[in-house]
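Entry 14: structure prediction run for Cytidine deaminase. Input pasted below.
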Amino acid sequence: MERPQFDDIFMELAVNLAKRSHCIRRHVGAVLVKETRIISIGYNGPPAGTHNCDEEFPENGCGKDSKGSCTLALHAEQNAIIYAVKNNASVSGSTLYVTLSPCIACARIIYSMGIKKVIFLKSYAEYKGLATDEGVDFLSKFGVETEQYSGDLSNVTHMI
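Run finished. Output tokens:
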């Protein structure tokens, strides 16, 4: 059996974390890594201790803002960064693995926190029907390395 690459391990974890989301529209997971060590994880949903959208708003989910985004939910990237900082972990110089490329608001936070690289599985622009991935464009413009994941998740968890 071949040993899996770290990119495959961390992206698989992000995919599995997405399954924890209570959002009824989209499940997103994120893993923050520094030097091959996980420093934080996150998935999209409302702040801890508030409510679960799929339980309180099972028909339509939580309310929407003027751009059609959830008014209550934190994005997976935000949750991972907040948890790391809350626990005194430095995210500067880290790599973020996320199942959906960052929106522009998350991209600003990622850049401001000094995260050096973002590896994403799927395109936010395709999901939202946008012409371009504004978050990825922003990050690239300001020197944060971005990469769409191209590994293979199908064999990572198989055991001998």
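Notes: Helices lie at 6-18, 53-56, 76-86, 104-112, 124-128, 134-141. Will compare against the previous run tomorrow.
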